[in-house]
Specification:
mainly alpha, two-stranded antiparallel sheet, 62% helix, Post-transcriptional regulator, Post-transcriptional_regulator
Length: 97
């Protein structure tokens, strides 16, 4: 099989990604975007893999579970967000002090 870099497959496997996003919506997760899903797959699922076949990419997209994605999204939000810099966080700190 022809193995290619991952980013070249994104347009080819878009129907599988859209199908997975529709599944997430049926389960009540409406905030998951195509970019977030692709980012999860690249940064977590295929972290150590640089080239895959198209059938392997489709398999991984369709096998993705919402729990795996949500765990990743939660950890990423803790890494990037600083709640204390938000207006709500500043108000709470102000009330405590």
């Amino acid at each position: 099989m022809n193995r290619q870099p991952l980013d070249e497959f994104k347009d080819h496997v878009k129907p599988a990604i859209v199908s997975k996003l529709e599944e997430f919506v049926l389960l009540g997760y409406t905030d998951v975007s195509e970019e977030k899903l692709w980012g999860f797959l690249k940064n977590k699922k295929w972290k150590k893999t640089t080239e895959l076949s198209v059938h392997e990419v489709v398999r991984d997209v369709l096998a993705l579970k919402i729990g795996d994605f949500m765990n990743y999204a939660t950890v990423e939000s803790y890494k990037t967000a600083n709640w204390f810099d938000s207006e709500e966080g500043k108000d709470v700190l102000k009330d405590l002090i």
